[in-house]
Amino acid sequence: MVLSFKTSCILIIVNIICCYQLINCEDALNTNASMVSSSEVVNRIPLQQAVDTCNSTYKIDEAWLKEFNNSGSFPDEFKTEPKCFVNCVLKECGIESEDQKFDIASSDFYLSSLRSERLGDMIDVIKRCIKHTDEEESGADKCERSYVYAKCVVEELSRRFRSGIIAEL
Fold first, then answer.
1. Among 17, 62, 64, 138, whose CB has the most other CB atoms within 10 angstroms?
2. Domains and CATH numbers, the chain
3. Per-residue burial over 41-77, b = 16 or more CB atoms within 10 Å of its CB, e = otherwise
4. What is the pLDDT of residues 74-103, one digit of tens each?
5. pTM (2 decimals)?
6. Angle at 148 between CA 142 and CA 153, to 5 degrees
7. 110 or 79: whose pLDDT is higher?
């Protein structure tokens, strides 16, 4: 199956955001996550379906996703629609609930495309960006918080790629 560029960008964002939840399962279970056993999880929405659904509510141009993927920022950071698009995809995939709790099993399912050796390179980045988001955006709305976190991760990974710390993502 070949994914569109837009779907690939959203998959990267989804993977980055939910990766933190898998790495810190124990802490997440006590604070911001719920555990669902794999036998309880029956239906998984395809990522492309989530992207299509969210794009019907939160229109986002492919060029904006490309810019975010390249720079870590949307062209206009004052617009909320692209930020809410990311939040919507997470909810459609079952990764994030309406009350902003994360489902570990759903996160695990959507992360299966990442090889485990890559996660080690991302642990510090994810922890740092969660801390940054909590400190900088503690009172922000859910869309803004999602954007600040994803932006932090993309910028940090870009910095590491440029410095040669990470060979490949």
1. 17
2. 5-163 (1.10.238.20)
3. eeeeeebeebbeebbeebebeeebbebbbeebebeee
4. 999 999 999 999 888 878 887 667 766 555
5. 0.63
6. 125
7. 79
